[in-house]
Amino acid sequence: MKRLLNAVVSVLLSASFAVAQEKATGAPDQGLKVEKAVAATSVENREPAGEATEFQASVGTVYCWSKVAASTVPTTIKHVWYAGDQKVFEKDLDIKYPSTRTWSAKSVKEGSWRVDVTDQAGTALVSVSFTVK
Q: Which of 43, 63, 91, 129 has the highest count of CB atoms within 10 angstroms of its CB?
């Protein structure tokens, strides 16, 4: 009986430690939700303009626009830009309100592109893919 009790206590302590460690090392639950994320040719009046998944090389700059809902503010998200599989740019974006529209922009060249919208810890919340021809 004593062994069984020790085993149960050991399991409970291990589980408690694992949860505490996850909370300490993982991203806090910020209640982040990306309601919409798109690639566009510009942002006008805080809204994306020229939304597309394919752009001509003459576009020069592409914007990644995100609408984010956060239950805990302030917080930060990141736009992490990739040309092919190579990370080429990262932008921290402050989320100051429970509903925020924010964006980043990058000069682009021909190829496949992706922008990961991540939380502070780098966990991808959503990805936006597009091609420049």
A: 63
